[in-house]
Design brief:
By secondary structure, the protein is of the alpha+beta class. The chain has a single domain, classed as Alpha-Beta Plaits, CATH 3.30.70.60. It is 35% helix and 45% strand. The protein is built from 3 helices and 4 strands; from the N terminus they run E-H-E-E-H-E-H. Helix 1 runs antiparallel to helix 2. The longest helix has 17 residues. It starts with a strand and ends with a helix.
Length: 110
């Protein structure tokens, strides 16, 4: 099994319940395709470098998971269809970092 890092940007118009529902759906898709969630980081509401679909802000979420290419394919298929997902990126990494990223630490200190 490979280890992947998946980052997605969700619409700023979502309420906390909708954010939780989308994140649960993402985790369910990974687990249904024999994947295992290793680490989840929520980076919170951040400014975008440029407007995407007329939005200037978005909720960032970062997930490390181990799984096969099928899990990545199904996850990205869902995100292409969902209109609340502005952008996403998945790539293979060698290992899951032990410490949280700086963006996650900034959100925790707020």
């Amino acid at each position: 099994m490979n280890i992947y890092e998946h980052t997605c940007i969700l619409s700023q118009n979502l309420n906390p319940k909708d954010l939780k529902d989308i994140r649960t759906k993402i985790e369910t898709i990974i687990e249904k395709n024999q994947g295992k969630i290793e680490k989840v980081e929520d980076w919170g509401l951040r400014n975008l470098a440029y407007p995407i679909k007329k939005f200037k802000k978005g909720y960032y979420s970062n997930i490390f998971f181990s799984g096969s290419g099928t899990a990545v394919f199904e996850l990205e298929k869902f995100e292409r269809i969902d209109e609340n997902v502005l952008r996403f990126l998945t790539f293979k990494v060698k290992e899951v970092p032990k410490e949280n990223s700086e963006l996650c630490l900034k959100e925790e200190n707020k």
